[in-house]
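hey m, so remember when u said the tokens were messed up on ur end? i reran from scratch. heres the input so u can diff it against urs
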Amino acid sequence: MTVECTRLKSGLTVVTQTMPHLESVALGVWIKSGSRNETEDEHGIAHLLEHMAFKGTARRSARDIAEEIEDVGGEVNAATSTETTSYYARVLKDYVPLAVDILADILTESAFEEDELEREKQVILQEINAANDTPDDVVFDKFSETAYRNQTLGRAILGTPETVVSFSPQQIRNYLGRNYTTDRMFVVAAGAVDHDEFVRMVEQRFASLPTAPSAPPVIETARYIGGSVRETRDLMDAQILLGFEGKAYHARDFYCSQILANILGGGMSSRLFQEVREIRGLCYSIYAFHWGFSDTGIFGIHAATGGENLPELVPVIIDELHKSAGFIEQKEIERARAQIRAQLLMGQESPAARAGQIARQMMLYGGPISNQEMMERLEGITIERLTDLAGRLFFDTVPTLSAIGPLEQLAPTEDIVASLSAPLPQSKTASR
């Protein structure tokens, strides 16, 4: 299952992985642009553009787009993130030309009609309201706003009601012209696809894409700040998110951070799950994560628990962070590697997952990365590197605390920060 890559004269990159045992193809267009590429008065426009792409073109109505792909049993969708946007489809192999045509149509010929725009604004306003009614969404949005205050990286991808209702078709076109250019776009397919034939289809249908931006793309360098935000609500559970500045994709410690997150809270055998849920029964859900961006990252621990458990829960979490800087067992590293390897291999069994993985690697690293190369990067991670990283991540940087729900028993922020900066007890350190 070799990955083949062709760069067209226009600058557009086309990548495929043929999986001949399949009858379907997952394909899409990934753009190296997201909410971080918005200007101050464009907050939420990247997400609105993703919606509007499906609301009619010069050749198709919004209903035509939906019916044509579903008439052949296919599906089409899109997603907006902080640094990327994707438009993708899944069809049987005989209908790849149709899927390519529809994706090209919505990305090069979208009409952005006023009446459709007004209707879609209302849809997004409902989406914003739904997110605000979901505490585990709110706690993450508040976290980002606090960790990266007054920066594009800290803003919610959906935008605000005020910004969303203000957008005009011309503003959408301006954002499109700056960011949807061939040097920032990757067309990827995985499944029952022939590379040369797919390249010919893409070259023909995407010929009208601009090769240079109408203005330089916007990107603001991230500045991690940290801090605390609390919102008391009458809820069943308190949502707690404690985090730190993580590592960017290209940083030396990026993969080390992924392993550390896995050891701390990556599954049922992880330290936090075992100590917090299985032994103490303090919460139903707890996990650790590490998100990388182009110039920064986030390492976080998220837990949901009853307000009465907060006085015990937070100290236990912090104690586990202290322990990770003091000792890590080799078997924990091996388990984390095995989990990552399994995720990589299982992902290759899904053409949609494989197409997305290839697209991310093209955008981040300029080319596909083999599983062998990925595992070789993980092999160099040692106990010493992990404990050193834990010490620097958790105790040498300003934490960010985001909490929502019944918070009356949550310790003052200054006490939590003080417990993070406290040294390990000498007796414990010596025994490790």
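this time it looks ok to me. The mean pLDDT is 94. if urs says something different then somethings off w ur setup not the seq
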